[in-house]
Amino acid sequence: MKAVDDPWLMAKLVCPVTRTPLRYDAAAQELVSEAAGLAYPVRDGTPVLLVREARAL
Q1: Which one of 4, 24, 38, 42 has the fewest beta carbons within 10 angstroms of its own beta carbon?
Q2: Do 45 and 5 meet the contact criterion of CB atoms below 8 Å apart?
Q3: End-to-end CA distance of the chain
Q4: CA-to-CA distance for 3 and 13, rounded, in angstroms?
């Protein structure tokens, strides 16, 4: 099972910068932090929560 398919895990994931919840954007394959203005990539179903890998919104 991919991490983004697991509701329990998604409820636990937070932005590493702001510690706020993330929103999954399935079309873009990203976890979005509105508070930080960043979108973290999801590669092969695994979130990459590294600021250097994030894209600015």
Answers
A1: 24
A2: yes
A3: 28
A4: 10
Q: Which token pair is 51?
A: 């600021």
**pLDDT averages per 10-residue partition of the chain, 57 residues:** 81 95 94 98 93 98
CA 30 to chain centre: 6
Q: Which amino acid does the sequence have at 11?
A: A
What tokens were used for 57?
A: 């919104």
With H, G, I as helix, E, B as strand and everything else as coil, classify residue 55: strand
Q: What is the pLDDT of residue 19?
A: 97
pLDDT score of 53: 97
Question: CA-CA distance, 40 to 54, in Å (whole number)?
Answer: 4
